[in-house]
TrEMBL record:
Family matches, as PANTHER family: BIOTIN SYNTHASE, BIOTIN SYNTHASE, MITOCHONDRIAL
Function, in words: Catalyzes the conversion of dethiobiotin (DTB) to biotin by the insertion of a sulfur atom into dethiobiotin via a radical-based mechanism.
Top enzyme category: transferase
HAMAP family the UniProt entry points to: BioB
Name this protein carries in UniProt: Biotin synthase
EC numbers, comma separated: 2.8.1.6
Pfam families: BATS, Radical_SAM
Protein's organism: Anaerosporomusa subterranea
Length: 326
């Protein structure tokens, strides 16, 4: 691997061509001292295809814990003993209050997130529709939904009340997925993506790195996201929460994380690539470097089961990177 190959591949993407799986795989062999060269080209690609705006989004944990699924990373699974706060679906007034909190932090978009596998037979779906309508009426926020697996009819109902983006992570590659979840298959996640797209919604779909997957798995995940024309890609970095099955896994180091974000930008030149949960813990003082390696979105405020950082610091970080918070 030489730096001339990085330049060749970066210029290829800037000319409007796609990188292949094998070309992306070759980039993982870059010497450590050239990782920032890959990042620099990823930044050029981001600016060329996606501009300098950065999408700031907040999340609302609308129903917490007691999830019947066995995802090994998740603090909300009943298979794990993590002592998180568990509660049933919040009512519309409570969700509105949390949405206003996110808006006060500077978020322009908020995602309503519920624990559990999905909504196919849930009696609470109509309450969520009502809450979304209230938030849209009483704030200026764009509202996304992250409700697990849904049917086409439910996707259409969400779209009909103005939800433009549905969030549902595939978590990792199809090959590695059975290693982290056995209670529902990868195909069910893909079926939800297709339902949301069929209803006319954009997709907010990403995953988690650092769970023990290979570089090939990460690249495969990126190409799956490309196949489904995912608009927004949240990339979490494993926060090995005590009590989960992955509590003893050692997450990747900052330079490996930076290279991962850069690779995703080479593969997905015009999308929103969003550093999400675990960035504060794992990138530490190098969080801003992710914004110079192709990232153009952030989750602001707290996450579902652990705290984020002061949102004002994220806005300063975005501006320091030469980007305009959206």
């Amino acid at each position: 691997m030489t730096d001339s190959f990085v330049v060749h591949l970066g210029e290829k993407v800037l000319r409007g061509h796609s990188v292949t799986y094998d070309e992306a795989l070759t980039l993982i062999g870059i010497p450590q001292h050239d990782i920032m060269l890959v990042a620099a080209y990823a930044n050029k690609i981001r600016e060329h295809f996606a501009g300098n705006r950065i999408d700031m989004c907040g999340v609302i944990n609308a129903r917490s814990g007691l999830c019947t699924e066995d995802c090994k990373f998740c603090a909300q699974s009943v298979f794990h003993n993590t002592n998180i706060s568990s509660y049933d679906l919040l009512d519309a007034s409570q969700l509105l209050e949390k949405a206003r909190d996110a808006e006060a932090l500077g978020a322009k978009r908020v995602s309503i997130v519920t624990s559990g596998k999905g909504m196919e037979s849930s009696p609470t779906f109509s309450s969520i529709i009502e809450a979304i309508q209230v938030i849209q009426k009483k704030t200026r926020l764009s509202v996304c939904a992250n409700l697990g697996t849904i049917t086409l009819q439910q996707a259409q109902a969400l779209a009909s009340v103005g939800v433009k983006r549905y969030a549902h992570n595939i978590e990792t590659s199809e090959r590695f997925y059975p290693s982290i979840c056995s209670t529902h298959p990868f195909s069910e996640r893909v079926a939800t993506l297709r339902a949301a797209k069929a209803a006319g919604m954009e997709l907010c779909t990403g995953g988690i790195i650092g769970m023990g997957e290979s570089w090939q798995d990460r690249i495969s995940m990126a190409f799956t996201l490309k196949e489904h024309d995912v608009r927004s890609i949240p990339l979490n970095i494993l926060n090995p929460i005590r009590g989960t099955a992955l509590e003893k896994v050692c997450p990747p180091n900052p330079l490996e994380i930076i290279l991962t974000f850069a690779l995703f930008r080479f593969i997905l030149p015009d999308k929103v690539i969003r550093p999400a949960g675990g960035r504060e813990i794992n990138l530490r003082d190098m969080q801003g470097a992710a914004l110079l390696a192709g990232a153009n979105g952030l989750i602001v405020g707290n996450y579902l089961t652990f705290t984020g950082r002061d949102a004002a610091m994220d806005f300063v970080m975005a501006k320091d990177a030469g980007m305009t918070p959206e």
